[in-house]
Amino acid sequence: MPQYPESLWRASTELPTFPQLEEDIKVDVAIVGAGITGITTAYLLSQEGLKVALLDAGRILEGTTGHTTAKVTAQHGLIYDELIQHLGEDLAAKYYRANSEAIEWMARTVKELDIPCEWKEEDAYLYAEGDQAEAKLRNEFQAYEKLGIPGLWKETLPIALEVKGAIHLPGQAQFHPLAYLKRLVEAIVKAGGVIYENTTVSKKLEGTRPFTLTTPQGNHTVTCQHIISASHFPFTDGGGFYFSRLHAERSYVVAMKPKTPFAGGMYISVDEPIRTLRSASWHGESLVLVGGEGHKTGQGICTYQHYENLEAFGDQLLGIESIPFRWSAQDLFTLDKVPYIGQITASDEGIYVATGFAKWGMTTGTVSARIITDQIQERENPYSELFSPSRFHPNPSIKNFIVENANVAKEMLSGKLGIVYTKPEDLQKDEGSVVTHYGRRAGAYRDTEGELHLVDTTCTHLGCEVEWNEGERSWDCPCHGSRFGYDGNVLEGPAQEPLKKLDAYA
Ligand SMILES: Cc1cc2nc3c(=O)[nH]c(=O)nc-3n(C[C@H](O)[C@H](O)[C@H](O)COP(=O)(O)OP(=O)(O)OC[C@H]3O[C@@H](n4cnc5c(N)ncnc54)[C@H](O)[C@@H]3O)c2cc1C
Ligand code: FES
């Protein structure tokens, strides 16, 4: 039976459960967020004998990591040509090396811990169908040659797509991310680490070392020497202006059982809208994951249309017998496409952040864990400078800083000024929309029983206007990607407070 919207990974993994924080605790390192970044960091630090606490606002691995496509590759779309232009050859080569070493580390870990996670070495392909895409791809290939990246130029693909060219990068991998991370979670617990679920950490930080973290209700505390924000969007800003230098983009994945066999390999297009492909399995059956249709969160077309576009692509390529799963998720982008990993600001010693993985967090989440572990253990790491959140590379940063802030300002204004004609009584069962309610803009959803749920559409993070996401039945914020349920409860940060509920009869 199809399970929508549910990810293949979550449906096929039984994860352990952990208690809510209900006491005051003292640890060496508190890690906020249990996705690939938080779990890998907690694993590394606990193996080195540090006492770690891993805290998650929801269940572990329910965030973006539970909804990824899990290609493990240093081929991050078109990137190396741009990195050379903005950062120079030395740092661009370091970006490749950091990600390649992360793949090697993950492969070694799978072997050493004997993790049954469908780890498979795979070939990655970046391909171009149109003329403009081909020109960009050729520049990218020149960048590979300059940096010594072992990519090969190909005129054809192993699958039935007509292309103008492709860069083939052998020696990459794919896996079942939750099967892999489940084993790391077990190792953290075995090494004495503690994990808490349904424990939101408040953005307010008190004092200097030792730090005290609190829950928003302030009733329980974690005292620690080091704090790591692995919460996707940083749970605390620390004066680092992350709200002005990160934006969220959603994308969609369809897990289909194909009518004709898939030749293997991992693919991503240069042409827009982006298409990605990889194989997977479900109860011994072969599936193909078709992904893409990225757009800024809260600014997409109807969600169903995104899924239909991916299904049409998959159907044309291989034919579709069935679609057991489909899901969507979002990831964060920095101003210069390079993640922010390291001390949250130049002056905040002991507080670290890892974010902005631009849909490549399987490797960069792992890179983060390795860098931050070295920094906490006061060891040199060759990649600290490249990923430092305090870096400043004038060209891309200044341009995108203005673009990001203009976009946020535009969303704040357009959301607040737009005229709305829909009224709550216009809504059918299971329908949601921004409406006019007693002369005020409001968010309304009529559930399947006919009950009306009304919320204030002002995002509780920094005040942008949320938009209705029909496919997920959620209120999504276009500014920094916060998401709320139809009843206003927080589904994804950075917002920590629910949307204000409005009285249907006020
Ligand atoms: C559709 C899609 C496909 C992708 N495909 C790939 C791919 O093929 N290869 C690849 O390398 N990358 C891919 N990515 C990117 C990758 O999945 C992400 O970069 C990565 O999973 C992010 O992991 P994370 O640990 O940083 O965040 P998450 O997995 O989101 O974990 C963050 C956790 O922090 C918790 N949290 C947030 N705020 C708080 C708080 N205040 N207190 C406590 N906990 C909090 C959340 O509940 C969440 O569990 C894809 C992304 C998307 C959206
Ligand atoms: S997520 Fe920042 S204003 Fe909504």
From TrEMBL:
Transmembrane segments: none
Keywords: 2Fe-2S, Disulfide bond, Iron, Iron-sulfur, Metal-binding
Keyword Ligase: no
CDD domains: Rieske_YhfW_C
A Pfam family matched in the record: DAO
Amino-acid biosynthesis found in the keyword field: no
Any one GO CC term of the record: cytoplasm
PROSITE patterns noted in UniProt: RIESKE
Residue intervals of the Rieske domain: 419-506
GO-annotated molecular function: 2 iron, 2 sulfur cluster binding; metal ion binding; monooxygenase activity; oxidoreductase activity, acting on paired donors, with incorporation or reduction of molecular oxygen
SUPFAM superfamilies: FAD/NAD(P)-binding domain (SSF51905), ISP domain (SSF50022)
InterPro entries: FAD-dep_OxRdtase, FAD/NAD-bd_sf, Rieske_2Fe-2S, Rieske_2Fe-2S_sf, Rieske_Fe-S_prot_C, YhfW_C
Protein name: (2Fe-2S)-binding protein
Native organism taxonomy: Bacteria, Bacillati, Bacillota, Bacilli, Bacillales
